[in-house]
Amino acid sequence: MVEPFQPPPYPYDRLDPLEAVAAAHEGGVVDLSVGTPCDPPPPAVVVALGASGTEAGYPTSIGSASLRAAATDWLRRRFGVDAGVTDVAACVGTKEFVASLPQLLRLRRPDRDTVLYPAVSYPTYAMGAVLAGCRAVPVTVDGGWHVDLGSVAEADAERALCLWVNTPANPTGAVDDLGTAAAWGRAHGVPVFSDECYVEFTWKGPGHTILETGLDGVVAVHSLSKRSNMAGLRAGFYAGDAELVHYLSELRKHAGLMVPGPVQLAAGVALEDDEHVDVQRDRYRERLAVLRDAFDVAGVDAPAPEGTFYLWVPAPEGDAWGFTERLAKEAGVLVSPGDFYGSDGYVRVAAVQPTARIDQAARRIEALTF
Q1: Which residue, 174, 179, 180, 183, is CA-closest to 203?
Q2: Which residues pair with 90 in a beta bridge?
Q3: What is the pLDDT of residues 74-86, one digit of tens each?
Q4: 226-274: per-residue pLDDT in tens?
Q5: Which residue of 38, 166, 192, 200 lies most exposed, with the fewest beta carbons within 10 A?
Q6: What is the pLDDT of residue 332?
């Protein structure tokens, strides 16, 4: 008898006991475990949610013409990429896109069964493969947390449905060379999907998209959640190879995957505005600096990330869970241990609380000694 699939515990649910411990701290918990934005979206976005007039009807699955035009305008303005509206389609936030992609690609290529993804990364890349009954094969990362595509076995490349890259990377903050990733994919006939949801928070030089290498064989995945503090609205888009975008958008129509109409209008408004992103970038830069300084005072080195709003902090004596527990018990600060992302010995610290709460967390951390 074949055993039924048993979903593994959701990573962040494993923190529930420690969250209760941290909440008992005087002043309550400062939750730096989940990368959920806390700052408000632009006021124009909130106004747009009530102004679309689309509430009564079904929204378009591929995204309205205005949303796709806003996405292509943003790609051109931000990166100098010329993509047509038919090279872009909407998704209901990018997590569902990541999780559902292997199933859809396997229908396209039933002779292949492997998803390649960075060995230290967002857990949904691997879980999407598992949910599709595929092989989830991690790609080695080097000492700077950059993907080492030379480590991919030829047998795995031949079976690959896709390669995921994520830059700037969650949880490490590393910025990969997307040109190398695109060239590897084209040389091996493997579509490369580039998760670029943190691109606006690139600290090492300007942000880049894989689409700067051309659209053939690559798809960039973008989210409004981080860029515009719209995580609760679930809006994103994917853009790139015309055949892949068309194929995926047609299947997604059949699955009823649709960004709500009011959200589509709001997303377009957000993409048209860069000023609020500049403000948010400064906030995260400041919060990261405050937390880095606090860990330094406590005797823990917290390297500056190349991008994202996370610190990837080496745990004292390599004990990530012990470090997580001590921060919860003694400082009321909740962080995520690295085994959530494929690497023991580190914790991820998300600089996503209001600045006053970040300052409070910093004072508590500074009072500790490691």
Answers
A1: 174
A2: 237
A3: 999 999 999 999 9
A4: 999 999 999 999 999 999 999 999 999 999 999 999 999 999 999 999 9
A5: 38
A6: 98
290 by Cβ neighbours in 10 Å (0-12 / 13-18 / 19+) ranks as middle
Strand 135-139 and strand 114-118: the pairing is: parallel
* Distance in angstroms (rounded) separating the CA atoms of residues 244 and 143: 33
For the CA atoms of the chain, what is the radius of gyration? 21
> In angstroms, rounded to a whole number, what is the distance separating the alpha carbons of residues 103 and 106?
5
| C-alpha–C-alpha distance, residues 15 and 10, integer Å | 10
What pairs with residue 333 in β-bridges?
A: 30
Strands 236-240 and 218-223: antiparallel
For the chain, counts of helices (H) and of strands (E): 13, 12
DSSP per-residue string spanning 165-221: EESSPTTT-----HHHHHHHHHHHT--EEEE-TTGGGB-SSS---GGGG-STTEEEE
Closest CA to 221 of 67, 68, 97: 97
- Of the candidates 238, 220, 305, the residue with the CA atom closest to the CA atom of residue 63: 238
Domains (range + CATH), the chain: 11-31+276-366 (3.90.1150.10), 43-271 (3.40.640.10)
At 167, the amino acid letter reads T
* Of 91, 105, 309, nearest in space to 220 by CA: 91
d(Cα 203, Cα 164) in Å, to the nearest integer? 22
Task: State the Cα–Cα distance between residues 299 and 326, nearest whole angstrom.
Answer: 14
Structure tokens at 233: 């609205």
57 sits in the region (left: phi over 0; alpha: psi -120 to 50; else beta) called beta
